[in-house]
Amino acid sequence: MIEDRSIAASVDLGAEAAAGAPGAAAAGRTRWFVLGALCLLLLVLPLGRSVIGPYNYVLQLLTITLMWIAMTSSWNIIGGFASYISLGHGVFMGIGGYTSGLLLVHYGLSPFLTAVLGGLAAVAVGALAGLITLRTRGPAFIITTIALLLMFRLWFDNWEVLGGSNGLTLPLPPFSVDWLRAPFYYAMLLTAAGAVYLSYRVAHSKFGLGLRAIAQDETKAEVSGVPTRMYKVLAFALSAFFVGVAGA
Fold first, then answer.
1. How far does CA 93 lie from the centroid of its chain?
2. What DSSP letter does each residue of 174-210 carry, written as one string?
3. How far apart are CA 152 and CA 90, in angstroms?
4. Contact between 82 and 143 (Cβ < 8 Å)
5. Contact between residue 242 and residue 69 where contact means Cβ atoms under 8 Å apart
6. Comparing C-alpha atoms, which of 89, 52, 71 is closest to residue 179?
7. For position 204, what pLDDT does the model report?
């Protein structure tokens, strides 16, 4: 009798799972449809100049929104997955901006071409800074990232190569006034998409699992074989990339 009941229960569970499968598939299709429609809308939005009233204002607002999406998605790798709260990521935005700005001023290279170099410069600084700051944990780590931010701010303000406190004087972009915001909008849209994709890939990887283990209990994660030191530095460096690109 017990065996018969077990078989009946298994059959019922299988039937429930089979009944729920079409609903889950439909929900998945709906989600992808909505996502695709949103992406299409974002792609064609700058073309609707005659439809949008304050055109440049709307594009500027969307560009800033996409910039913050890129930065927060990138920051999430260290602050969300590993739970190491960094308040100094503005440094990487400045590094990306100054890298791209110097290449524009001295070599005439467009920021649209050198943004990746700004991101790589931010990654290099992030790796070096991570080797130092990630020796601490908790509130001590937060304080060290604030110190990092203040240190670089003093450096930026007093280094004449970067223009000191006045910054760099950049030439005006060679675009029509009517379409001035559109190239920056598309560049930031691509940056935001890349940052979200990177965060997604990290979340669904062995590396991301290790970061979540560090967030739960770093000591136990290390005892379990997770290379916590390497993972933290790598996460800190990766989280700097798209922040630097956004700054460029």
1. 12
2. SS-GGGSSHHHHHHHHHHHHHHHHHHHHHHTSHHHHH
3. 10
4. no
5. no
6. 52
7. 94
Per-residue pLDDT at 172:
77
- Residue spans per domain, the chain: 1-47, 54-247
**Per-residue pLDDT in tens (0 to 9) along the chain, 248 residues:** 444 444 444 445 444 544 455 666 777 678 777 878 878 878 777 776 655 666 778 888 899 999 999 999 999 999 999 999 999 999 999 999 999 999 998 898 999 999 999 999 999 999 999 999 999 999 999 999 999 999 999 998 888 888 887 888 888 777 776 677 888 899 999 999 999 999 999 999 999 999 999 999 999 999 999 999 999 999 999 999 999 999 98
Radius of gyration of the chain (CA): 23
Task: Give the CA dihedral 90, 92, 98, 99, nearest 10 degrees.
Answer: -170
Q: List the structure tokens of 87.
A: 């308040």
Q: How far apart are CA 129 and CA 237, in angstroms?
A: 9
